[in-house]
UniProtKB/TrEMBL annotation:
<dbReference type="InterPro" id="IPR006674">
    <property type="entry name" value="HD_domain"/>
</dbReference>
<protein>
    <submittedName>
        <fullName>Uncharacterized protein</fullName>
    </submittedName>
</protein>
<dbReference type="InterPro" id="IPR037522">
    <property type="entry name" value="HD_GYP_dom"/>
</dbReference>
<feature type="domain" description="HD-GYP">
    <location>
        <begin position="111"/>
        <end position="308"/>
    </location>
</feature>
<dbReference type="Pfam" id="PF13487">
    <property type="entry name" value="HD_5"/>
</dbReference>
<dbReference type="InterPro" id="IPR003607">
    <property type="entry name" value="HD/PDEase_dom"/>
</dbReference>
<feature type="domain" description="HD">
    <location>
        <begin position="133"/>
        <end position="256"/>
    </location>
</feature>
Length: 356
């Protein structure tokens, strides 16, 4: 156990001792997993130190652990980030994009992710607000390739769809960062400016003689929606090519699960629920989304999680129709989250199994 001053970063940590108020009342018991509400209650009562277990690994600690365990991934991700930064800078100055080495590092990163599939679930936790668009490009590339593979596509096509995801937002290089990084809701005029990025991206790629039609299509059409409510072309249904549908899902998923200047990140499970909802509202391809959620849920079976009420549970079995609402075991009872709609999984408690 260790004693720490209460702060919001202790969410999901386990209490190593009871917390007693000045009035002698029991506020929280030993073994309880702290939620945001608990920590607010502790801070309001001016309790200056609490005991927490040291043995339990939070996701952030896991990422530090991964950094040591998988330096290759971190090295590749870091180098890839530098490549994307250079790419966006060249594009913003209307300079020529260096194509020869453009995909080299990204392809290495993609192959690494294929051999360690659990890694992509943790992508959101290495986000850095200042580099959002660059990290988003890498993540959308990786997730797009994974979605393509899950849809049964093979070899070269998977790689090309990865490239399509990687370059989908290149048009944002020409949108002022004062708009992209604005911490509050955009005005209508600003939003109209942002909506220019698909066409701008397409033009940048054409000017640089990037000819792969999958890459060009994704840049132009990743904001089209199946119900026709997207932009810039307002295409609908099967008029939207598969690559644009795949990149759209990767884009939405990464955006939902990421920390932005105007919002905190959602847990992966919250992101799955959102994605499921958006797909079934008719915006995204529900078959691809279900494939994606089923794949993730299979990885989750047997993992310990924290529920939205702060209690611990174990994922037992995911149902194919609502894979983000699996059967869980909690305090010796089985709970079907498809039926208990007020409960949901808040966060992974113990890191995903790590096998290379
Ligand atoms: Fe975009």
């Amino acid at each position: 156990m260790k004693y720490v001053k209460p702060y919001m970063g202790l969410v999901k940590q386990q209490l190593a001792d009871d917390i007693i108020t000045e009035q002698g009342l029991l506020l929280l018991s030993k073994g309880h997993i702290l939620t945001e509400e608990d920590i607010k209650a502790i801070i309001i009562r001016q309790i200056d130190r609490i005991a927490i277990e040291e043995t339990r690994t939070s996701i952030n600690e896991y990422m530090n652990h991964l950094q040591k365990m998988d330096p290759e991934f971190y090295q590749l991700y870091d180098t890839c980030l530098t490549t994307v930064e250079d790419l966006f800078q060249s594009a913003s100055r209307q300079e020529r994009i260096e194509q020869d080495t453009l995909f080299e590092i990204f392809d290495d990163l993609m192959s690494h992710m294929v051999s360690v599939p659990h890694l992509f679930i943790q992508l959101r936790t290495i986000k850095d607000i200042d580099h959002y668009t660059m990290q988003h490009s890498i993540n959308v590339g990786i997730i797009s390739a994974l979605l393509a593979r899950l849809m049964g596509l093979k070899g070269d096509e998977v790689i090309r769809i990865g490239h399509a995801g990687f370059l989908h937002d290149i048009g944002k290089a020409l949108i002022p960062s004062s708009i992209l990084q604005k911490p509050i809701v955009l005005t209508d005029v600003e939003f109209e400016t942002v909506k220019k990025h698909p066409r701008l991206g397409y033009e940048i790629l054409v000017k640089n003689e990037i000819k792969d039609p999958l890459v060009l299509t994704a840049a132009l059409m990743h904001h089209e929606r199946l119900n026709g409510k997207g932009y810039p072309l307002k295409k609908d249904g099967t008029n939207i090519p598969l690559v644009a549908q795949i990149v759209a899902i990767a884009d939405v998923y990464d955006a939902i699960s990421s920390e932005r200047v105007y919002k905190k990140s959602f847990s992966p499970f919250h992101a799955y629920m959102e994605l499921h909802q958006i797909a079934f509202q008719g915006e995204l391809n529900a078959a691809i989304v279900l494939n994606f959620l089923q794949y993730i849920s299979k990885l989750m079976e047997g993992q310990e999680v924290i529920m939205n009420d702060g209690q611990k549970a174990t994922v037992i079995l995911a149902d194919p129709s609502e894979p983000h609402r699996p059967l869980v075991s909690m305090s010796g009872q089985f709970i079907d989250l498809r039926k208990e709609r007020n409960r949901y999984i808040q966060e992974l408690l113990i890191p995903m199994k790590y096998e290379t």
